[in-house]
């Protein structure tokens, strides 16, 4: 007796007729019937999407789900699997796990339509979310591209529609808001291929990412400890779920057609993207990469004695901010480098909302010693001096992500020269940012909270500036006192 085995590592289709033929051959070649020696044809172990609603009527390696990445820490999660797939409404599909000789179907158990409305940085969609059981099949109400995610530990499945793709970032005219830079479906629904496209898009030096439904992630559990990426970064020709920002150098500036394409014939997640330059753009004004403060109102007029670098606002090269201690008397100016070259101050009197026009005169301090927020807008040639507004945001403050979170506002304690908060916090990443009246109204690019964020690392305040995500600082649930000394740059987190 011989044992005939086929693994379709290279031949991707599982054919029933092939199985029957092999079985007949085995039975005729044997003197006796032995169940242990029955021939078998196996596809590669894994989870597959298959069914009449899809492009894969039978098992195909191109329909195999791939290992997912937990958005929370951007690390592979062994129990999470995902796949983008075009699904036809009213027709069925299955999720089947092939494990050796077994084929286990996972069908809906307690599943319902969940409207995310864009909360907690999720896509603004209605997804089918719930638990699963052995056996059964799925349907969707509308034909389209879907992001299917299953987590075996959570026993949870999400079938998320992809209404459009957005391109957003410092390279785009609208910054990190994709309301006006959406790639819409090109043509009609097709189970084999779906394309989303935007034309005539101006892209400048900077960075960008792609995301669907104006969301960064999709929550798979109520605690927010497991989330699927709904965005791509890395490189335009090598997309990575949740990957780093895609960088566009200055020599690549221009007018572009950007296309995001899903194909049933593409392995992995099935997603690719491309950019076609269709025109040139006029160069933008150049702004300094750094800006410094100097003066007896904030320290000294001698450069060797004063080190007060301002913080660049991410994706807004013309804007800088700083929380600075001001004396009762004196004034200050600004310069791109720590030297008397291209320095500037104010012109005329302060407006009713504490704003100066850029000019050559010294900027006077308000007259009461303490911390103040200074923002310089080089594009509009304005200087603002205002009260300090520092806020917590995110996981530790109840997973609130719409800035500014009122309940997470710090108190300015000038007597002790700190900006402080004492509060019961949830477990998660400690994230903080400054807020200013100019941030939400900049047209066309509002300043997002993370573009002016900072952390405490090794008892020091570390500013994000124009960089990528900073190191993660995680807290366990508890009552904490957080102190920020912007004079010395020291920060502390004390468990109460």
Characteristics:
496 residues; mainly beta; Immunoglobulin-like; 4 domains; elongated; disordered N terminus
How are the secondary structure elements laid out?
Blueprint: E1 5-7, H1 16-28, E2 40-42, E3 46-50, E4 66-70, E5 75-87, E6 94-99, E7 102-115, E8 126-134, E9 144-151, E10 156-161, E11 165-168, E12 182-186, E13 193-203, E14 206-212, E15 217-219, E16 227-229, E17 231-235, E18 238-241, E19 246-248, E20 254-263, E21 271-279, E22 292-294, E23 308-309, E24 311-312, E25 319-326, E26 331-335, E27 345-347, E28 355-359, E29 363-364, E30 370-377, E31 382-386, E32 390-393, E33 411-413, E34 418-425, E35 428-429, E36 431-434, E37 453-457, E38 460-463, E39 474-475, E40 478-485, E41 490-495
Parallel strand pairs: 1-2
Antiparallel strand pairs: 3-6, 4-5, 5-9, 6-7, 7-8, 8-10, 9-10, 11-12, 11-14, 12-13, 13-20, 14-17, 14-19, 15-16, 17-18, 20-21, 22-23, 22-26, 24-25, 25-30, 26-29, 27-28, 28-31, 30-31, 32-36, 33-34, 34-40, 35-39, 36-37, 37-38, 40-41
Helix tally equals 1
The total tally of domains equals 4
Structural class: mainly beta
Low-confidence stretches: 1-41
Average the pLDDT over all residues and give the rounded result.
91
Report the sheet-strand fraction: over 45%
Q: How much helix, percentage-wise, in residues?
A: under 10%
As a whole number of angstroms, the C-alpha radius of gyration is 28 Å
- Terminal residue distance: 73 Å
Overall geometric form: elongated
Main sheet: strands, sense, barrel: 9 strands, antiparallel
Number of strands: 41
């Amino acid at each position: 007796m011989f044992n005939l085995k086929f693994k379709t590592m290279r031949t991707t289709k599982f054919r029933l007729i092939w199985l029957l033929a092999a079985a007949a051959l085995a039975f005729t070649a044997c003197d006796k019937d032995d169940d242990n020696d029955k021939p078998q044809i196996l596809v590669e172990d894994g989870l597959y999407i298959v069914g009449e609603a899809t492009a894969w009527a039978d098992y195909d390696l191109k329909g195999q789900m791939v290992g997912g990445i937990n958005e929370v820490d951007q690390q592979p999660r062994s129990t999470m699997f995902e796949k983008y797939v075009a699904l036809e409404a009213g027709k069925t599909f299955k999720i089947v796990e092939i494990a050796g000789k077994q084929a286990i179907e996972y069908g809906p158990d307690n599943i319902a339509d969940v409207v995310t409305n864009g909360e907690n940085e999720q896509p603004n969609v209605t997804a089918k979310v719930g638990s699963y059981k052995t056996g059964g099949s799925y349907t969707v109400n509308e034909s389209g591209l879907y992001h299917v995610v299953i987590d075996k530990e959570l026993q949870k499945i999400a079938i998320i529609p992809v209404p459009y793709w957005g391109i957003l970032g410092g390279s785009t005219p609208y910054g990190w808001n994709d309301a006006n830079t959406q790639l819409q479906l090109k043509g009609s629904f097709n189970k084999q291929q779906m394309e989303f496209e935007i034309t005539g898009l101006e892209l400048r030096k900077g960075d960008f990412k792609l995301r669907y439904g104006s969301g960064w992630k999709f929550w798979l559990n109520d605690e927010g400890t497991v989330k699927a990426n709904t965005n791509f970064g890395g490189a335009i020709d090598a997309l990575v779920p949740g990957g780093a920002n895609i960088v566009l150098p200055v020599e690549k500036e221009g007018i572009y057609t950007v296309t995001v394409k899903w194909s049933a014939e593409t392995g992995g997640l099935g997603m690719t993207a491309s950019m076609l330059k269709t025109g040139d753009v006029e160069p933008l004004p150049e702004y300094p990469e750094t800006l410094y403060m100097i003066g007896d109102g904030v320290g000294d007029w001698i450069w060797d004695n004063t080190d007060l670098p301002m913080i660049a606002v991410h994706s807004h090269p013309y804007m800088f901010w700083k929380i600075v201690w001001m004396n009762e008397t004196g004034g200050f100016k600004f310069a791109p480098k720590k030297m008397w070259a291209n320095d500037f101050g104010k012109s005329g009197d302060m407006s009713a909302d504490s704003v100066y026009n850029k000019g050559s005169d010294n900027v006077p301090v308000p007259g009461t010693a303490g911390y103040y927020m200074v923002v310089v807008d080089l594009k509009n040639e304005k200087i603002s001096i205002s009260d300090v507004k520092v806020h917590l945001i995110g996981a530790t403050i109840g997973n609130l992500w719409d800035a500014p979170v009122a309940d997470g506002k710090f108190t300015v304690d000038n007597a002790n020269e700190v900006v402080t908060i004492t509060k019961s916090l949830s477990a998660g990443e400690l994230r903080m940012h400054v807020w200013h009246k100019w941030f939400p109204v900049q047209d066309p690019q509002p300043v997002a909270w993370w573009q002016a964020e900072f952390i405490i690392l090794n008892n020091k305040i570390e500013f994000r500036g124009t960089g990528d995500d900073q190191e993660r600082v995680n807290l366990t649930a508890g009552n904490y006192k957080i102190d920020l000394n912007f004079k010395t740059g020291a920060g502390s987190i004390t468990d109460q």
